[in-house]
Amino acid sequence: MVSAGYAFTPAIYDQLPYDPGKDLAGVSPLANLPSVLFVSSTLGVTSAQDLVALARAKPGALNYASAGIGSASHVSAEKFRAATGLDIVHVPLKGAPEMVAETLAGRTHFGLVGITAVLPALRDKRILALAVSSVKRSPALPEVPTMAEVGLPAAEFDFWIGVLAPAQTPRAIVNRLNVEIARALQLPEVLERLANLGAEPMPMRPEQFDAYMREQLASLGSLLRGAGVKAN
Question: What is the pTM of this model?
Answer without folding.
Answer: 0.89
